[in-house]
UniProtKB/TrEMBL annotation:
PROSITE patterns: HTH_ICLR, ICLR_ED. InterPro entries: GAF-like_dom_sf (IPR029016), HTH_MetabolicPath_Reg (IPR050707), Tscrpt_reg_IclR_C (IPR014757), Tscrpt_reg_IclR_N (IPR005471), WH-like_DNA-bd_sf (IPR036388), WH_DNA-bd_sf (IPR036390). It comes from the Bacteria. SUPFAM superfamilies: GAF domain-like, Winged helix' DNA-binding domain. Residues 1-62 form the HTH iclR-type domain. Pfam families: HTH_IclR, IclR_C. GO terms for biological process: negative regulation of DNA-templated transcription. Keywords: DNA-binding, Transcription, Transcription regulation. Signal peptide: none annotated. This is Transcriptional regulator, IclR family. SMART domains: HTH_ICLR (SM00346). Residues 63-220 form the IclR-ED domain.
């Protein structure tokens, strides 16, 4: 079990944005000896979870992509959600994302980024703790019986201003299936300087319209 947990910690190092990492960077992030990492990476390479490049740097292997694709197959609403994310990103000019809860984390299942130089960049598949951010508060409000989230359920949205990142603001609304079950959180995020009161109201209206359109449609069987 200890070896398995250490291997998972090595894989988790790639969740911080970089596509490749050196042995020294892996050692720094995990706290493991380099010899331990090398030994574990042999097994991870054998099963396709990690690839060692000719320059000695490590990157995730195809097995991780395959498992991620299998994970997404559990969610059948992609054809409904992606067009709305594209519409939001192009209309609002900010990053549009769709999150689902996975245990004590939220996962960015889908996202669409605007065509502008300065934007909030999010990687599909990114996992974040449910401790901060509009999408986190929104998901907790509809999956936990907690008095702290009653106001979010009442107004039907959550707003965060500089919680996870002091430069980023976000607004999230719930997305339901036609039978009333929560599908996830639809969110818009971008530079906090672009989210004044008037802008937040515009974003909120667009988000709720998108969520309603998604909610009226059934997924393909």
């Amino acid at each position: 079990m200890e070896a398995v947990e250490r291997a998972f910690r090595i894989l988790a190092c790639f969740d911080e944005g970089e596509l490749t990492l050196t042995l020294a960077e892996l050692a720094r992030r995990t706290g493991f000896y380099k010899s331990t990492i090398l030994r574990l990476c042999v097994s991870l390479e054998r099963y396709g979870y990690i690839v060692r490049q000719p320059d000695g740097r490590y990157r995730l292997g195809a097995t991780v992509w395959r498992l991620g694709a299998r994970y997404r197959q559990n969610f059948t609403a992609a054809d409904l959600i992606r067009p709305e994310l594209r519409r939001l990103a192009e209309t609002i000019g900010e990053t549009a994302s769709f999150y689902v809860r996975d245990g004590d984390s939220r996962v960015c299942l889908y996202r669409h980024e605007p065509d502008r130089a300065i934007r909030h960049h999010i990687v599909e598949g990114a996992r974040m703790p449910l401790t901060a951010g509009a999408a986190s508060h929104l998901l907790l409000a509809w999956t936990e019986e907690d008095p702290r989230y009653r106001e979010i359920r009442r107004v039907g949205h959550a707003i965060s201003l500089g919680e996870r990142d002091s430069d980023i603001a976000a607004i999230a609304v719930p997305v339901f299936s036609p039978d009333g079950n929560l599908r996830g959180a639809l969110a818009i995020s971008g530079l906090i300087t672009r989210f004044d009161d008037a802008r937040r109201e515009t974003v909120l209206v667009a988000l709720k319209e998108s969520a309603e359109r998604i909610g009226r449609q059934k997924t393909a069987s």
